Amino acid sequence: MANRKPLIAGNWKMNLNHLEAIGLVQKIAFALPTKYFDKVDVTVIPPFTDIRSVQTVVDGDKLLLTYGAQDLSAHDSGAYTGEISGAFLSKLGCTFVVVGHSERRTLHAETDDVVLAKTKAALKYELTPIVCVGEGLEIREAGEHVAYNIAQLKGSLAGLSADEISKVVIAYEPVWAIGTGRVASAADAQEVCAALRTTLAELADQKIADSVRVLYGGSVNAKNVGEIVGQTDVDGALVGGASLKSDEFATLSAIAAGGPLP
Ligand SMILES: O=C[C@H](O)COP(=O)(O)O
User: Fold this and answer.
1) Residue 79 Cα, ligand 1 centroid: separation in angstroms?
2) What CDD domains does the annotation carry (predicted)?
3) On the CB side of 163, how many CA atoms lie within 13 Å of its CA?
């Protein structure tokens, strides 16, 4: 079994302007001393308009946390009004980019094909895509969640080479748990994350499947993160609401690192 370093990714969604972003990054850095970064990777995912400011703080203060973007265009450049190229994100020093978040799949009608195209664009520009999958409540209640997530993962990674698959991060985010306070049980998270890892082994190979990080997302906070990331196949968390609170985000990152609390 590969030794996967946990990843805590704070998806700020459409919150905080660039001045507020600077403040939050500084507070997180103050609350989470550098010693934790040996045991956990921590990244913040602000709105596009904040990224340059976040870069300035991270570079200027030599912070160990990384940053990324919430989306990218499938295209390189050109007449795509409102879109942001992976080339631009890479130039800004982004490490990660979220693709296929359920809010994009639902509100912007992003299909698996679109998610696949964006995943390819991310890899082209040496960004690590955090590829999101997750079922809605009806599918969960029908007991079809495992098959649904496997199909979504296969669609979102279709045709990628084993080498490309080795460079992605997967996030399992049940839609019914996002922003609702209704976190999946640790066993629920483990069930789907294990199935996704088995799927990665089918799409690539077992060694790669053992090395790819599979995150859980959905109402993660400092109280529940320990049990969730304690699961065999859960390698961290994609955190929404709790990532906007510096102390809570630092605490849950420290817990993912195995403590002690800062
Ligand atoms: O990307 C993050 C997820 O959508 C989870 O959001 P949440 O922690 O506010 O439930």
Assistant:
1) 32
2) TIM (cd00311)
3) 3
* Structural domains for the chain: 7-257 (3.20.20.70)
Task: Kindly state if the Cβ of 94 falls inside 6 Å of ligand 1.
Answer: no
Q: Which amino acid is at 3?
A: N
CA angle 219, 208, 177 (to 5 degrees): 10
Q: Each residue of 159-179: pLDDT tens digit?
A: 999 999 999 999 999 999 988
Which residue from 12, 178, 183, 221 has its CB within 8 A of the most atoms of ligand 1, so it is best to mutate?
A: 178
ipTM value for the complex: 0.99
Asked if 172 contacts 214 with a C-beta cutoff of 8 angstroms, the reply is yes
Position 1 pLDDT exceeds 50: no
Count of beta carbons in the 10 Å neighbourhood of residue 61: 12
Active site residues: 101, 173
Q: How far apart are CA 183 and CA 157, in angstroms?
A: 26
**Which atom of ligand 1 has the smallest separation from the CA of 179?**
10
d(CA 254, CA 152): 31
* Residue 60 marked as a ligand binder: no
Residue 260: cis peptide before it, omega within 30 degrees of 0: yes
